[in-house]
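Researcher: Go.
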Amino acid sequence: MMDRKFLEWIEENLRDPESALWKRTTDTQYRTYTIEYTDWNVAKRKHTRMRKEFSGFFACYKLNSKNGYGGYAGSRRVVAYESFSGDGFIVLHNDWRGDNGKENLARELISRCPL
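Model: Structure:
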């Protein structure tokens, strides 16, 4: 199930999905992670310490695909995450930007994935 959704993500998000070389490096597991991070509070005009809980299914993958120049970019670790609390299915990676909670979750989970 997780592999099928990961393949759909590859099809939708990579420049050359046919070139993708991937391998799941962990079993899919249901986990809950609590991530603490600092976020900018607009109303208070200061950084605020935040705490967010992420529950769902997680699996680590190694992914390599061709870049715009036609060469392989190098293998990198990514985490597929399926949440039942509104996030749906997302793939977290080291280049994740935006939601600070997910950015810190990506760093935390990728550091736990095997090489």
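Model: The chain has a mean pLDDT of 85.
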